[in-house]
Design goal:
This protein has a single domain, classed as Glutaredoxin. It is globular. 45% of the residues lie in helices and 21% in strands. It is built from 5 helices and 5 strands, in the order H-E-H-E-H-E-H-E-E-H. Strands 1-3-2-4-5 form a 5-stranded mixed sheet, with helices on both faces. By secondary structure, the chain is of the alpha/beta class.
Length: 132
């Protein structure tokens, strides 16, 4: 019988759980991709950019609110992209973002609103509504 070392067992479990954790934290979001973002804007789509960090308690509070809103038929055509605050600093500079838990909405190529640190479902819904 083959014995697994603790390290091998840990890595195996971590690799099995990691994809599920990522899906649970940001359902329906795409990692930010410049070509897809540009295409959505050129098509006049409603776009949400979420700047998150895995350690951010506000981001964790926003996640279920955004999940509920994105499942609302009113926002069904909104394209959502996620930017990692810790690893995508070039995008943060490009979008003039200074903090995690920042939400930015675009209607086509025009930024129509942004918020930082908001966990109020009504005001987040109002923000997303600006892009519709």
């Amino acid at each position: 019988m083959m014995m697994l070392s603790r390290r091998t067992l840990f890595v195996t479990v971590a690799l099995a759980i990691l994809p599920m954790t990522a899906l649970a934290l940001s359902p329906g979001n795409k990692p930010y991709n410049q070509a897809q973002f540009d295409a959505a804007q050129a098509a006049g789509r409603s776009v949400l950019v979420e700047v998150t960090a895995p350690w951010c308690s506000v981001c964790k509070a926003q996640a279920p609110i955004l999940t509920r809103l994105k499942s609302d038929p009113k926002f069904k055509d909104m394209v959502a992209f996620e930017i990692d605050f810790d690893s995508q600093k070039d995008l943060l500079r490009k979008l003039n973002v200074r903090s995690q838990s920042t939400l930015i909405v675009f209607k086509g190529k025009t930024e129509v609103g942004r918020s930082t640190g908001d966990t109020n479902p009504a005001s987040i819904a109002a923000l997303l509504g600006k892009a519709i």
